[in-house]
Amino acid sequence: MKAFQITRKTQAGMTLTESLLVLAVGALVAVLAYGGYKVASGNVSEKSAVESTARLLTSIKKAFGGSGNYTTNVTTANLAKSGIVPTDFKSDTAAGTVAAPWGTGTSMVTIAGTGTAAVPVNTVPVTLTNVPASICLAIMSGVEGLAEGIKAGPAATIPPTNVIKTPGSAGSYDAGAAAAQCGADAAIEITLK
Q: pTM for this structure?
C-alpha cells in the first residue's frame, strides 16, 4: 500500500501585518516629503517676494529718479502705465493700480512723489500694503540696501509710522523693530533716494 505523503505548500504573498507595516512606512515617507516640500516652497516664495520687490524698487529709481529728482509724475498710475513693473506684479493701466504678487489680491503698491518739475525732491515713498507675515520681514531685510528709510506697521495704518530704518546715510536697520511689525498682514513704506 502506498503511504500518503502530506506536503505543505509554501505560503506566497504577505501577511496582513506585513502589509500594514509597508503602508505605515509609506505614509511616514509621504508626510515627511510633504513637510519638506512646504518648507522648500515657503523659502522660494520668500526669496521670490524679495527679488520681485527689489526689481520693482530698482525700476522705479531708474525710470523716475535716476539722480534722486522725484517729481509729481511719480505716481501709482504712471508706474502702472510705464511698462517697468516686473511681470509678477499685476499692473492695471486703466485703473492706474499695481498689485503685489503675494497675498489674496488686496496687496497693493502705492507711490506718490511730492516734488514738482521746478522743485524736485530727493526721496519718494513706495508703500506695500497687506504684506503677509510670512514674507514681511524678508522683504524689509532684503531691500534694506536699496532704501533710504523703511517704516512698517499694521495693514490698517497707512502710511505706516514705526521706523525700521532711519533715513539718512548713517541710518541703521532695526531688525527687532522689523520683526515686531510683522505679526499679521503689514504695510511697509520704503523710501527711495
A: 0.67
